[in-house]
Specification:
Elements lengths: L1 H11 L1 H12 L2 H15 L8 H13 L5 H32 L8 H21 L6 H11 L4 H26 L3 H5 L1 H10 L3 H19 L1
Length: about 220
């Protein structure tokens, strides 16, 4: 419980912790931010790291001169692209085995085939859009790899999504993060950055759950 409470405190007070890291570690903080973004996007078991809010707050610190905005953007774009790439190849490694699985109680072959077809047809918008959706951005490249989405197209969309995600949130933090009304309500901003982007995904999941429940009731 103490670990969970500490993690929640870390997320809700990222500005204080980032300020402490900058003062304690100086330029090494760039490497720390690089690793956080890489791990969030590169390891499918780490979807809970606070990527969006971290980018916004890092941009706000760049506006004060504590960090370099151009260096921040370039390094974190590289981290985001490499993270998604590693996640994709983990999925590709597992993928050939999945294609050999037969339909069973624990594996829906038809659903997997649909997912594969979906990524072939709508891979671009999925890879780009899920960059802005907590949790989904961690799973999306993994599923793309499992579904055997072509590596060339994946890298194009991966790069576009990474640039848009990193640049938009850090620049937003740079220009708006130090406005008094935003700075005074930063905890609410952080919560909004975590909750609001995930609402569409929750709505879709709820709709699918209701549809599945209705089918079982027939």
């Amino acid at each position: 419980m103490d670990v969970l409470l500490h993690f929640v405190d870390l997320i809700l007070h990222l500005d204080k912790y980032l300020d402490l890291m900058i003062r304690e570690y100086g330029t090494t903080v760039y490497a720390i931010l690089f690793v956080i973004i890489f791990v969030e996007t590169g390891l499918v078991v780490m979807p809970f790291l606070p990527g969006d809010s971290l980018l916004f707050i890092a941009g706000a610190f760049a506006a004060t001169g504590a960090l370099s905005l151009p260096l921040l953007i370039v390094l974190l774009i590289i981290a985001a692209v490499l993270g998604n790439t590693s996640n994709y190849w983990i999925g590709r490694k597992i993928g050939p085995r999945v294609f050999q699985w037969e339909n069973s109680r624990f594996f829906n072959r038809n659903a997997f085939d649909k997912a594969h077809a979906f990524y072939e047809k709508h891979g671009a918008i999925t890879i780009i859009a899920t960059r802005f959706l907590p949790f989904l951005r961690t799973f999306s490249p993994f599923v793309a790899g499992v579904a055997a989405m072509g590596h060339g197209p994946f890298q194009v969309y991966n790069t576009i999504g990474g640039v848009l995600w990193i640049a938009s949130l850090t620049i937003a933090g740079y220009f708006f993060g130090n406005i008094p009304v935003i700075k005074d309500n930063l905890t609410l901003i952080i919560v909004a950055l975590i909750v609001i982007p995930g609402l569409p995904a929750l709505f879709v999941a709820f709709r699918e759950w209701r549809a599945a429940r209705a089918r079982r009731a027939r």
